[in-house]
Amino acid sequence: MHAPNMVKSSKSVSGALGALMLISTAAVAEDAPVVVELFTSQGCYSCPPADELLGELAERDDVLPLAFHVTYWDRLGWPDTLGLPAGTARQEAYARSLGTGRIYTPQMVVQGQIDVVGSQRSRVMRALQIAEEHAERDVDIRVDNGQLAIGAGKPTDAKIWLAAYDDVNEVAIDRGENAGKTLTYHHSVRELTELGRYDGSEMSAELPLPRLAADGRDGAAVLVQRESDGAIIGAARVDLPAGSG
Asked: Which of 100, 115, 197, 206 qualifies as a FRET site for 228, CA 20 to 30 Å off?
């Protein structure tokens, strides 16, 4: 069985440059990472190259990579051990905001705006370049002792997400299209929580960092994502307290 049929996005790499230039007039925060979301599955035979590429991106300070293991491949008889229903729902939301109407693996979504096949290295790198140069990343996010503070910006309607992830997972696959392989996954999101809404006003929230560390998570990320078009307008890595896991 093959991955669900892939359709060309209205905001694919070829068309993303103009789209991002139109929506972005704000200065880019130099220290804000570009968010790369990979939608993958242990049951998908074409996903390992994309999983490996995400691992390479995890070595870069200017990129915040997150892997969402979808659940619709579980029907092949190998339930993804890192499967996250919220990840499937997130990909479905992108199918609407990107205008594709369909989902597939391995899909990478860069800064919430550019849809690219996650195993196509040259296109992924081009998407990163576009986002570095033109995406909106002007929302100031700070975390101090578990307290999240987001600075005032221009009026908007956005959601604030907290994604908690594992640095590395190695999984021996017994069944399905990858049977017999031991695969390595990077920055797999194990928990996705909506913290609230951001309208451009200053806001703050307490983050459950000790609990995430006690649950065995290695890191977390805060994303500020505009509702109208899915654009990620702010992102930050969050360190978890040491000695809690």
From this structure: 206
129 phi and psi angles, rounded to 5 deg: -65, -45
Q: Which two tokens stand for residue 23?
A: 């929506």
Specify whether the CB–CB gap between 56 and 62 falls below 8 A: no
End-to-end alpha-carbon separation of the chain, Å? 39
What gap in Å lies between CA 58 and CA 62, rounded to an integer? 9
Over 80: is that where the pLDDT of 121 sits? yes
Residue 237 tokens, joined: 């890595």
DSSP per-residue string spanning 169-192: EEEE--SSTTTT-EEEEEEEEEEE
Taking the C-alpha atoms of residue 221 and residue 71, their distance in angstroms, rounded to an integer, is: 22
Q: Could you give the CA distance from residue 72 to residue 64 in angstroms, rounded to a whole number?
A: 25
Give the integer Cα–Cα distance in Å for 64 and 57: 8
Chain centre distance of CA 140: 19
Residue 106: asked if its preceding bond is cis (omega within 30°), the reply is: yes
Indicate the domain borders of the chain: 13-238
Q: What whole-number distance in Å separates Cα of residue 91 and Cα of residue 26?
A: 27
pLDDT tens profile 54-113: 999 999 999 999 999 999 999 888 999 999 999 999 999 999 999 999 999 999 999 999
The Cα–Cα gap between 231 and 113 comes to 6
117 contacts 6 by C-beta, under 8 angstroms: yes
**pTM of the full structure:** 0.89
User: 13-238 falls under which CATH superfamily?
Assistant: Glutaredoxin (3.40.30.10)
